């Protein structure tokens, strides 16, 4: 790959974005050196890495990287015997901790073999982590817990310091020295405790002079009374320093023992960091891993330029290869031609660098040995001979180095010179590339190139759509349709007179005008076709929905009938078994009667047995009729005002409205109105009248006033629980089987408190969160016992 063209297509900007997602300096260096590859095995591996990283991020979040330092050099120093300082050891400890946590996190996933294989190579050194953490508090402080000797020495140092301070306090507070001392303070010079003495009183104060003030008026003297104490303190500090050196040397030896493994951990962490950065970029761009093909074919479905903001970018489907190797894109300025070229080129580079590309699933792309691009911003380049020369120099280089497996992108091919000569050169260049079957895309304003694409095989036109009504581009790429200049239409729309426009048309060749007319007609045909296609697609979706709905209804009906038949068979089997048992009893009684010497009661006993048999016959026949009735299909013709039987409530109800489209019926059950499925209804059943009692009247009243839901939003938890308790009691007495409690989402305090209360309530059988259409997380649906 030529770096010049990689830079032209702004691949360096993609790397800059990727850079921001990396944590470690090592991963950032890997990004800096990232280049597209032409080897299928490498591209496939890198794409797999990115896909696995994307999967982790979308399902559970990114690997929780902590600090990742480049500790390879530090570990090598430890190996050869150098003693590492506290700062270096802390970096090693932090990096080892990150390695351990990262490995544990990755081990949760079973569907990321590439990342798992890397993670498995990480070595865990928990004992080194723990020793460093226990021994070192900061870059400048070693913990007292680092060793028993260090703790003892520091206790002695503190004790000696206190003795010195006590002695000095006696001196500075003594009336004997009040006129001799410059000030009643204790300070330090050369790590020795001293007091400030007036210079003229030096002879009156025995001790060792350590410093003199800049004015010479004060001398800082170590009193003779504490010289030995300061000496002991210095000795203890030397012991402390030696013990710290010993501790650091010990920790360094632990690191040096595992130098190679620790360095390898650093390598793996940087690779994982780099892979996760690729995954984060993929998620941010809503990108996908395209399918690789070996057919020199590109199909990027709804491709988006990676560097344009999400809310501004317009997607285009780009197809190249297969039936044609050369694509010529025409259209007005600022219409999106150059963006289309850059989108194709940049997506190809990103793909071959192992990055996902921003397009839809089922996109496919091939691997190129090189991507060439002659692209310039014509809005910022003066069209002059120098510009033409610069473009031609670049094109000459491309033509000299292009290979059969290359992708070539030309922006405004042949522009910057005489239109006739420029068009001729452009056709010749494209023809040369076409003869070698090299995939090529070129943008142009020349009508000659439109004609070339219409008349030549293996070449096709494309255009960027322009809305003549709003005088603005839509940036949508249309393959197979050449673009119009729209100069006359735009001028007319802006108010230019018909006379001038007609005069302009007379100066243009007839075949050019006819060409524009053909393009206009094609554009109208395309627009009408797309409109009809959208209408047909909508109708097709409606038909699919209706068919799916009918199939689901039929399937539910079959399952319901099957269950009813199975229930009927089970009840029939039980009745037969009961009848057999009764018959056995009858047979035994008959045998007893036969053997009995008492014949007086035989007739009476025989009549009783016959009566019992007839009762079982009637019971069996009645049950059979009920089972057959329940096995039948649910009501089909239901009208407003009908009285129906609600199977789930075992009560009659009045029909208020019927929705045939949804197979639902709005019914009135006492004072309650609810919507039920038709399949839950059957013919009206007679309800036996019961004697009215006081308890019955209360139950009737509760039924009439029962509500299917209660709204607790805005209440505190205590008030809400009281309201729920009252509501459940009323619902239970009202005969409701299921109730809805509306508590909202908010901070979830109200929801958790209510559900905790429901677990203990004697009338609640079970409860669940609301489903889609019921209120979701904002409601709790409870089933009563």
From TrEMBL:
Keyword Cytoplasm: no
EC annotation from Swiss-Prot or TrEMBL: 3.1.-.-, 3.6.4.-
Coiled-coil regions listed in the entry: 143-170, 515-626
Keywords, comma-separated and alphabetical: ATP-binding, Coiled coil, DNA-binding, Endonuclease, Hydrolase, Nuclease, Nucleotide-binding, RNA-binding, rRNA-binding
Limits of the Smr domain: 710-785
Annotated positions binding ATP: 331-338
Enzyme class: hydrolase
Gene Ontology biological-process entries: mismatch repair; negative regulation of DNA recombination; rescue of stalled ribosome
Function according to Swiss-Prot or TrEMBL: Acts as a ribosome collision sensor, splitting the ribosome into its 2 subunits. Detects stalled/collided 70S ribosomes which it binds and splits by an ATP-hydrolysis driven conformational change. Acts upstream of the ribosome quality control system (RQC), a ribosome-associated complex that mediates the extraction of incompletely synthesized nascent chains from stalled ribosomes and their subsequent degradation. Probably generates substrates for RQC.
Protein name listed in UniProt: Endonuclease MutS2
Classification lineage: Bacteria, Bacillati, Bacillota, Clostridia, Peptostreptococcales
């Amino acid at each position: 790959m030529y770096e010049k063209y990689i830079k032209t297509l702004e691949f360096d900007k993609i790397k800059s974005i990727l850079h921001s997602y990396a944590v470690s300096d090592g991963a950032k260096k890997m990004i800096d050196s990232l280049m597209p590859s032409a080897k299928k095995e490498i591209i496939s591996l890198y794409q797999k890495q990115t896909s696995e990283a994307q999967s982790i991020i979308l399902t559970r979040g990114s690997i929780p990287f902590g600090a990742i330092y480049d500790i390879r050099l530090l570990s090598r120093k430890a190996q050869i015997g150098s003693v590492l300082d506290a700062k270096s050891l802390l970096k090693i400890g932090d990096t080892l901790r990150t390695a351990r946590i990262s490995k544990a996190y990755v081990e949760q996933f079973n569907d990321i073999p590439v990342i798992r294989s890397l993670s498995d190579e990480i070595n865990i050194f928990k004992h080194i982590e723990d020793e460093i953490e226990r021994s070192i508090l900061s870059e400048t402080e070693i913990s007292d817990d680092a060793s028993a000797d260090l703790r003892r020495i520091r206790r002695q140092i503190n004790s000696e310091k206190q003795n010195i301070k006590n002695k000095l306090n006696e001196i500075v507070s003594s009336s004997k020295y009040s006129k001799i001392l410059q000030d009643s303070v204790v300070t330090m010079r050369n790590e020795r405790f001293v007091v400030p003495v007036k210079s003229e009183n030096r002879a009156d104060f025995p001790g060792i002079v350590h410093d003199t003030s800049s004015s010479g008026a004060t001398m800082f003297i170590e009193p003779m009374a504490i010289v030995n104490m300061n000496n002991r303190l210095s000795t203890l500090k030397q012991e402390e320093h030696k013990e710290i050196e010993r501790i650091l040397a010990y920790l360094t030896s632990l690191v040096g023992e595992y130098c190679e493994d620790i360095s390898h951990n650093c390598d793996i962490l940087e690779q994982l960091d780099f892979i996760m950065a690729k995954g984060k970029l993929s998620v941010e761009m809503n990108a996908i891993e395209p399918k690789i093909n070996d057919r020199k074919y590109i199909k990027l479905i709804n491709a988006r330029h990676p560097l344009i903001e999400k809310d501004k970018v317009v997607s285009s489907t780009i197809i190249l290869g297969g039936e044609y190797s050369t694509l010529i894109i025409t259209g007005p300025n600022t219409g999106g031609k150059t963006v289309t070229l850059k989108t194709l080129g940049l997506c190809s580079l990103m793909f071959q660098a192992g990055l996902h590309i921003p397009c839809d699933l089922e996109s496919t792309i091939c691997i190129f040995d090189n991507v060439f691009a002659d692209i310039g911003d014509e809005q910022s380049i003066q069209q002059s001979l120098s510009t033409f020369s610069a473009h031609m120099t670049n094109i000459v280089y491309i033509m000299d180095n292009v290979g059969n497996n290359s992708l070539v992108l030309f922006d405004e091919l042949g522009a910057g010179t005489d239109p006739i000569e420029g068009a001729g050169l452009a056709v010749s260049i494209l023809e040369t590339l076409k003869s070698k079957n090299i995939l090529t895309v070129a943008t142009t304003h020349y009508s000659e190139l439109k004609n070339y694409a219409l008349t030549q095989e293996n070449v096709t036109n494309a255009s960027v759509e322009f809305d003549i009504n709003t005088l603005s581009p839509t940036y949508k790429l249309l393959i197979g349709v050449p673009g119009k200049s729209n100069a006359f239409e735009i001028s007319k729309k802006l108010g230019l007179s018909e006379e001038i426009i007609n005069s302009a048309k007379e100066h243009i060749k007839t075949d050019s005008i006819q060409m524009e007319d053909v393009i206009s007609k094609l554009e109208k045909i395309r627009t009408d076709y797309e409109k009809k296609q959208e209408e047909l697609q909508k109708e097709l979706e409606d038909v699919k929905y209706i068919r799916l709905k009918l199939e689901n209804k039929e399937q539910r009906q079959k399952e319901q009938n099957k269950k009813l038949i199975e229930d009927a068979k089970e009840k029939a089997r039980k009745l037969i078994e009961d009848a057999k048992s009764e018959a056995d009893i009858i047979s035994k009684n008959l045998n007893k009667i036969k053997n009995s010497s008492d014949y007086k009661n035989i007739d009476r006993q025989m009549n009783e047995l016959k009566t019992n048999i007839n009762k079982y016959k009637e019971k069996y026949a009645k049950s059979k009729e009920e089972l057959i009735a329940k096995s039948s299909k649910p009501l089909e013709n239901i009208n407003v005002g009908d009285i129906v039987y609600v199977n789930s409530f075992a009560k009659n109800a009045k029909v208020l409205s019927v929705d045939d489209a949804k197979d639902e019926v709005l019914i009135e059950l006492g004072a309650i109105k609810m919507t039920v499925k038709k399949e839950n209804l059957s013919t009206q059943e007679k309800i036996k009248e019961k004697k009215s009692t006081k308890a019955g009247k209360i139950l009737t009243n509760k039924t009439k006033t029962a509500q299917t839901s209660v709204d607790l939003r805005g209440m505190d938890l205590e008030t809400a629980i009281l309201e729920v308790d009252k509501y459940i009691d009323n619902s239970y007495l009202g005969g409701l089987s299921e109730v809805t409690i509306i508590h909202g989402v908010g901070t979830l305090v109200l929801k958790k408190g209510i559900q905790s209360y429901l677990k203990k309530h004697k009338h609640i059988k079970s409860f669940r969160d609301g489903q889609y259409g019921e209120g979701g997380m904002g409601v709790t649906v409870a089933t009563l016992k």
